[in-house]
Amino acid sequence: MVVKAAVEVMGHELNVELYPWQRSVMLAKTQPKYAGYFPEYYFESEDVIFSQSIGSGPLGFAEHTSTPITWSSLQDLKTVKLGVINGYVNTQKLDDMIANGDIEVEAVVRDSQNLHKLAKKRISLAVIDSNVFSYLLSTDSTLRQQKGRLQMNPKILADKQLFIAFLNDEEGKKWKKVVDEGLNKIDVDKIMSTYFSSIEQPK
């Protein structure tokens, strides 16, 4: 909603196509018809440039209601199996521990897959933005029946800013300028709050 508002206030039309995360990144980087991809967390890169923030999302863990997990540091999670998304940037510390093999993970291409696995207790925790969690449990017909089985762990990893990633070329710079100017003309926080408050929260 934020990106749509920012683009439209500048007199343009937004067309969005939904793909698994790694394919979205690949298409944006290789197909000229795509101006960028979102939502993305910031990371150091020479290949892409980032818009101004399009909002923020609390990154944390979904868990099964019958087996909640108490943890104070990521070291406490070495004995549990995490569900992650292929190609996602999480937090530096978590990604380093995953890369070093300190935490056992299973990777999938969609958040909904992790939530289904979590409902069946095939994993102990699933890394997910809490807004995405609420959205999926309210809008995905295959997940609605899992509402009583799944919840967000009360401790979050980070409240992360969200961005659009554009290819670092003239076309990407052009659309970054358009979006950034549009973002300056709208109330991002109000749009985010209105949108997510309209989504039924999982019970």
Q: Quickly give the CATH architecture of the largest domain.
A: 3-Layer(aba) Sandwich
Overall 3D shape: globular
How far is the N terminus from the C terminus? 25 Å
* Beta-strand content: 15-25%
Count of folded domains? 2
User: What is the β-strand count?
Assistant: 8
CATH topology annotation of the largest domain: D-Maltodextrin-Binding Protein, domain 2
Main sheet attributes: strand count, strand direction, barrel closure: 8 strands, mixed
Verbal overview:
This is Solute-binding protein family 3/N-terminal domain-containing protein. By secondary structure, the protein is of the alpha+beta class. The protein folds into 2 domains: 2-55 and 159-197, Periplasmic binding protein-like II (D-Maltodextrin-Binding Protein, domain 2), CATH 3.40.190; 58-158, Periplasmic binding protein-like II (D-Maltodextrin-Binding Protein, domain 2, 3-Layer(aba) Sandwich), CATH 3.40.190.10. The protein is built from 7 helices and 8 strands, in the order ααββββαβαβαββαα. The chain has helices spanning 2-8, 21-30, 92-99, 111-119, 130-139, 170-183, 188-197; strands spanning 36-40, 48-50, 55-64, 81-85, 104-108, 125-129, 150-152, 158-167. Strands 1, 2, 3, 4, 5, 6, 7 and 8 form an 8-stranded mixed sheet that branches. Helix 1 crosses helix 6 (170-183). The longest helix is centred in the C-terminal third of the chain and has 14 residues, at 170-183. The two termini are 25 Å apart.
